[in-house]
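Table S4 entry, Porphobilinogen deaminase.
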Amino acid sequence: MNDTSAQQRPLRLGTRRSALAMAQSGQVADAVRRLTGRPVELVEITTYGDVSREALAQIGGTGVFVNALRERLLAGDIDFAVHSLKDLPTAQPEELLLAAVPRREDPRDVLVARDGLSFRQLAELSAAGRPARIGTGSPRRMAQLNAWARQLGLRVETVAVRGNVDTRIGYVAEGELDAVVLAAAGLSRLGRTAEITEFLSTDQVLPAPGQGALAIECAATNAPLAATLAQLDDPFTRAAVTAERSLLAALEAGCSAPVGALADPLADGQAVTELRLRGVVGTTDGSTLVQLSTTGPVPASEQDAVALGRELAAEMLDKGAAGLMGERAH
């Protein structure tokens, strides 16, 4: 194929088939079209995590939404792939390049509850009778929601659920659950923020490492495409999620372990001068949490961001974090 025909060939973007994955990949495809002037076609790929009905912790959540896309990348069937960054294993294969981490959406978790109720109002239902049933497939969310209810002197019942956004919200609409917890970024990308009844404060519920961010991956050997995709990279987002994922890696935890982390900016006037990294590990019943934070200069390099995550992980391990994680990755 000559250079001219290569330029005209559509770029093939690999994506999972879910409505959310298609929406976020479609946004990236639009950005790449604007950058390159080339057509971009979405290639829908089914991953093991999409077809398994088991809980992620049972099937070993690390990589189950990612591996099939990576296999197609390495085979040359697609040119690049878009992932939810929180689904990526912390170890990056040498053959693949994390070409861009675009600007992050809202990293918070949100509540979609019946009758517009808040978490506190749901927890207060337990004082009047049965505990409110709140659906989530995440041990991290379960740990922090149950701990929050304990702080209020109340309790909730966290119920393990799986499925796409429609399925989960459907449990509430049909009365099977009182609420579900989802990622704010996902509902925003689907244009469904009107269904949110409460944004959960990160002081109460820290998100998954990398939540709200996307990862754009291509073959390490495709330097021209990598250089193009790099124009979509947001340096601050990359530094923040690198610190969060470094914490996760240093804890030797998989992406379905009950670990929350968030790196956010601390500003001096208008200028961002420092990065605060917070981390939490807990038992799913909320009875024990290890929650710590550290602050440092905005990382000037990937190594600085990695060091910040490792520093906080070491402190958390000293406080007993290892004993609270249900899944350890080795």
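The CA atoms of residues 29 and 40 lie 6 Å apart.
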